[in-house]
Amino acid sequence: MFKELKPALSMLILMTILTGILYPALVTGLAHLLFPEESAGSLLRVNGQVVGSTLIGQPFSDPRYFWGRPSATAPMPYNAAASGGSNLGPMNPALKEAVEARISTLKASDPAQKQPIPVELVTASGSGLDPHLSPAAVLWQAPRVARVRGLSEQAVRELIERHTSGRTFGLLGEPRVNILTLNLALDQHRLQLSRL
Amino acid sequence: MTTNGILQLVLYLSVLLLLAWPLGLYMASIYGKQQPSGLRWVLPVERSIYRLCGIREDEEMSWTRYAAALLVFNLAGLLAVYWLQRFQAGLPFNPQGMANVTPDLSFNTAVSFASNTNWQAYGGETTLSYLTQMLGLTVQNFLSAATGMAVLAALMRAFTRKEASGIGNFWVDLVRSTLYVLLPLSLVLSLLLVSQGVVQTFAPSQNVSLLQPVHYEQPATAPDGQPLKDAQGQPVLEKQTAREQTVALGPAASQVAIKQLGTNGGGFFNVNSAHPLENPTPLSNFLELLAILLIPAALCITFGRLVGDVRQGGAILAAMTIVFVALLALCVWSEQSGNPLFERLGVATQASDHSPGGNMEGKESRFGIVNSALWATATTAASNGSVNAMHDSFTPLGGLVPMWMIQLGEVIFGGVGSGLYGMIVFALVGVFVSGLMIGRTPEYLGKKVEAFEMKMAAMVILTPCVAVLLGTAVAVVSEAGRAGIANPGIHGFSEILYAFSSAGNNNGSAFGGLTVNTPFYNILLGIAMLLARYWVIVPVLAIAGSLASKKSIPPSAGTLPTHTPLFVILLIGTVIVVGALTFLPALALGPIVEHVQMINGQ
């Protein structure tokens, strides 16, 4: 055992330098050089001010905005300093209560909308930071947003269309809409209209 | 299952198996001491490492010396991670001012990373400094993976030796696994991941102003930090408004790459690969999924090549793939069928091109059902344990798949090195059992399988089972164990069973609701992880030593061929019978009962 002590300790130190310092440093250097935006967290700037990350969702409850996935982070929803899911089991009464509460909030937000609510709108995301929502769940909210903002539903649908990404290579993942950039676009849309 | 879903799964498996072939042959050359032509410039680096450490690279080690070197080295790594956490507050690269970690959590995390489990009792962005993540966790991600590969290299070598006393040199196997396999692959993968948006920066967290301020309630605290209670003893809630969001950043990509390639799985962030900054797009998800199973699959080819008959490795790879596909289908079907509760409440759960449908609780929109179920199956087939969806919120049968996959002993692909050496032990048991049936001395790849190998094999197979079942039993009957349960009813039992399955097989994934950052769980699960890792490695090395010292006998008419479909079935049968006999009673008390309750709408 003792014969192996010296090689073990020197190996640990060398490997720590190699894989714990040189490797992350090299990746960081190359990442900044090749992908400056992505490596910094895909931050979104409006007039020089950081207003979010395109990859991190934000909480919305105002009817003027599209709402994203319910978030189970604590103490506030979409807490990007402490990610987390609900971890509620399928039979947990708390899951039933949470889903029922979300359904009634959604129905109250647009009593005229008679289509069934897509499941993504009433279930918490895994990270609590999900920036996306399925096109079906966004379209479900389109009449409400159009009405509150005084826009035609057609205009809102076109905006949604522009912010929808399909499956990668037409195959991988799920089609999705980025809620933060969509809502930012809605606000800018209003600015453009007011300038006319 | 949707057509698109099937296409995604077929594409994944095809690319995986296509890439496993060349990588497997490449790794065979690495362990065969050949220098890959593109990496000749690494040779001086490799030599100087040996020189600095006082290692003679041509020195052969007996299995006991090999094991001693491995244990001393792993212990040193474990202690380093422990002390890094205990002192992190005063050390540099701690922009968020993280406090020192408690002794029990430090022990748990140190064991977890040294043993290639990467169980997360800590919450990445809320507990650990950048320095601890890099010098502690990232380093162990490499070294624990390289340790597993070294053990496998020794075992593979043992089949090719005749009446030899040595099984190779641990230091050489460790260094070559790191320098020629893990580091180059991680470098390429981490840059690919950054291109997709995985964060890689030393900058501190970023405050951003919210588009819409958010109102929320949180428990009020008195000036002395104690939570305030009202007259009824209920916590007092105070209204808060947040106008800003703090986005945790960090050098994630470099760690995510090796955590997937090395079947480690410990997340940079709390929710692991469900976090959009660890796994932002369907493409990053595909690449990370490939990385999870790539090396374990490729090592089967390496094995075949080194023992001189690639078909031998192909048979093992086939057995792994068949079990994988069967359980994958069950998981995808169960998650897509969803939770009947949602339908009763009138929610739309049909899958279409506009909505993933199914059971979306705990799942991310960009991955939907198919990629979440695929990930859950792959990460538990391998001893990876990273998650891109919350297993605790899976349907009962959808959650049974990852749990049973772990309980099978992490041999369906399994951990890098550890999966295949576990599977080779099952193969030894398989030929032994069939040898008994036909009344001949069992032999595998020209080596007689005798009592000593079987005793060691029994230890390899039974140690994790004992750790899982005993640990679960202790937790279920003790107050401290039940205190951690998050979900009421049967699901609470499943949470505990999953935790000990995960620790007792070095997987690392969890039914995350269980509160495990308590001295009880930190210590008990830490012990389970140690047993599952080292009480398996030492007997495997003993088998290697014993096989290397044997003569090699040419196959005769009485030899059971081990590259045929018959052997594939035999191998699958051995794995499934052991897994089913050991764990079906426990599973029946957990996910199976819960499934029956769910479909009956109770």
Question: Can you describe this structure?
Answer:
The complex is a heterodimer of chains A (196) and B (602). Chain A is mainly α and 196 residues long. Chain A has two domains: 1-40; 42-195, no CATH class. Chain A has helices spanning 5-34, 36-39, 93-109, 135-149, 153-162, 179-195; strands at 43-46, 49-53, 132-133, 164-165, 176-178. In chain A, the strands form two sheets. Chain A has a three-stranded antiparallel β-sheet. Chain A has a two-stranded antiparallel ribbon with strand order 1-2. In chain A, a hairpin with a 2-residue loop joins strand 1 and strand 2. The longest helix of chain A is centred in the N-terminal third of the chain and has 30 residues, at 5-34. The relative contact order of chain A is 0.12. With 602 residues, chain B is mostly helical. Among the domains of chain B are: 35-203 and 251-306, no CATH class; 206-247, no CATH class. Helix content of chain B is 60%, strand content 5%. Chain B has helices spanning 3-31, 43-53, 63-86, 103-114, 124-127, 130-160, 170-196, 253-261, 282-306, 310-337, 340-344, 368-381, 396-407, 418-438, 451-477, 479-482, 490-503, 519-548, 565-599, and strands spanning 206-219, 237-247, 443-444, 447-448. In chain B, strands 1-2 form a two-stranded antiparallel ribbon. A two-stranded antiparallel ribbon of chain B has the order 3-4. The longest helix of chain B has 35 residues, at 565-599. Chain B is globular, with a radius of gyration of 24 Å.
